[in-house]
Amino acid sequence: MSTMEIAVLGAGAMGSMFGGRLAEAGHSVTLIDINQPHLEAIRANGLCVETDGNTRAIKNIAAMRPGATDKTPELLLVFTKSMHTRAALSGIEHLLGETTAVLTLQNGLGNVEAIRDFVPLANVLIGVTTWPADLVGPGSVSSHGEGNIRMMSADGERTSKVSAVAEALNSAGLNCQVDDNVWAAIWEKVAFNAALNSICAVTGTTVDQLGLLDDSKSLALTVAAEVVSVANASGVSADLNTCSTNIVHAIEQHRGHKPSMLQDVLAGRKTEIEGINGAVVDVARTLNVSVPHTETLAKLVRLIDARNASAVAK
Ligand code: NAD
């Protein structure tokens, strides 16, 4: 296997987990972040990764602030929250070479548009992942269970770059499939997140608690149906049955799970609402599709974001 020069922009839960696993597979990995205690802990003790009872410290990994590295990577993996993508890329623009591939597996819509401001479309790769990750504390991440990645170039071309990136991800056991239908996968994940994340963020319930009332379960399914109707109107063949099955499965199985949007609300951090429900509403408007439930949830989460921001400002 040939090894790759990889930089991870946004080395929180997902970026650290992916970066750690790629470093373990022998790739040269630089984590780039602005979370100073996290960077210092990694430099002092290595990156601590816990996966299903297997805890190890990964030492062959660099951890830097954006301005502190000048190594141009073959692959830049973007794992900031979606609303930070543009600011983060502007901090590492000097690293982007003519052939650097930039892969986003972030949630939401609008990630390609943000990345395109910095690199040509031919270098942008997009996808979704079902791998979960949590930041346990500075220098330490955990991930449980199996996941996968569905990925493709943003312009739909199956280039050698796409194969090389998929091979690198697979060398780290990350189960990457190159998928011509990647936009359907992205919209199906947006539908899942628009439904569960926003309802849990507004109500403070865990995912399984949405099963306490028929009304809340049916609200989640209604939001998913709205999002899928927007995807279909825009020419993407997202499948409502797939989304509904995933939502019902999550409500039945994800006991005690707080979606990231609820975790952000509870921690007083800004949520990804604009990249998820907000972005769906924007696309729906251009296509004249009605998404009243998705829009109401966007407005409510926006209000929570504003409340949290005003509390910080005081
Ligand atoms: P996170 O908040 O743990 O990590 C984001 C990191 O980006 C933070 O460490 C932050 O310091 C860093 N960052 C912010 N601004 C930056 C800047 N200007 N320069 C460099 N770094 C910067 O988020 P996460 O949970 O890892 O999620 C990342 C993305 O992946 C999100 O879009 C999320 O929705 C998606 N996602 C998360 C999971 C999960 O289980 N956590 C699963 C699938 C997809």
UniProtKB/TrEMBL annotation:
An annotated Gene Ontology molecular function: 2-dehydropantoate 2-reductase activity
InterPro entries (alphabetical): 6-PGluconate_DH-like_C_sf, 6PGD_dom2, ApbA, Ketopantoate_reductase, KPA_reductase, KPR_N, NAD(P)-bd_dom_sf
Enzyme class: oxidoreductase
Single biological process term from Gene Ontology: pantothenate biosynthetic process
Reaction(s) this enzyme catalyzes, per UniProt: (R)-pantoate + NADP(+) = 2-dehydropantoate + NADPH + H(+)
Domain Ketopantoate reductase C-terminal stretches: 181-304
Keywords attached to this entry: NADP, Oxidoreductase, Pantothenate biosynthesis, Plasmid
Pathway the protein takes part in: Cofactor biosynthesis; (R)-pantothenate biosynthesis; (R)-pantoate from 3-methyl-2-oxobutanoate: step 2/2
Pfam families: ApbA (PF02558), ApbA_C (PF08546)
Domain called Ketopantoate reductase N-terminal: residue spans: 6-151
GO CC terms in record: cytoplasm
EC number, UniProt record: 1.1.1.169
Family membership: Belongs to the ketopantoate reductase family.
Free-text function comment from the UniProt entry: Catalyzes the NADPH-dependent reduction of ketopantoate into pantoic acid.
Record's protein name: 2-dehydropantoate 2-reductase
